[in-house]
Write a structure and sequence with these properties.
It contains three helices and no strands. It has about 110 residues and is mainly α. The chain has a domain of about 55 residues. Helix 1 runs antiparallel to helix 2.
């Protein structure tokens, strides 16, 4: 379980980094222009690579979230409704006579 949480944390940090690296028009920060590496590191190539990495990281993050949720619920037999505190009717009957009153203006 600890390993899954560490992987989730790494994916969250990577997702934040990839989103912040993308410009407003998907231009990126430093990989645009300069050099001709077959379109991979051109402005358009880096934007596509960064977009694909962001989408892949987001998909992995969502899958890991579902896996963590399922693994946490399998180990617990407790229902969410059973974890709520019980309400006794005797406590509520004593409070009925103590209703708040509206103060008078002087």
């Amino acid at each position: 379980m600890t390993i899954l949480i560490i992987i989730q944390l790494i994916l969250a940090i990577l997702l934040v980094i990839f989103v912040l690296l993308q410009g407003s028009d998907n231009e990126g920060l430093g990989l645009s222009g300069g050099g001709n590496l077959g379109g991979l590191m051109s402005a358009r190539g880096s934007a596509n690579l960064l977009s694909r990495l962001t989408a892949l990281t987001a998909t992995l993050f969502m899958i890991m979230s579902v896996i963590l949720t399922i693994s946490a619920s399998v180990g617990s037999d407790k229902n969410i409704l059973e974890s709520l505190p019980s309400v006794n009717s005797s406590e509520n009957s004593s409070e009925v006579g103590n209703e708040p009153s509206i103060p008078e203006n002087n």
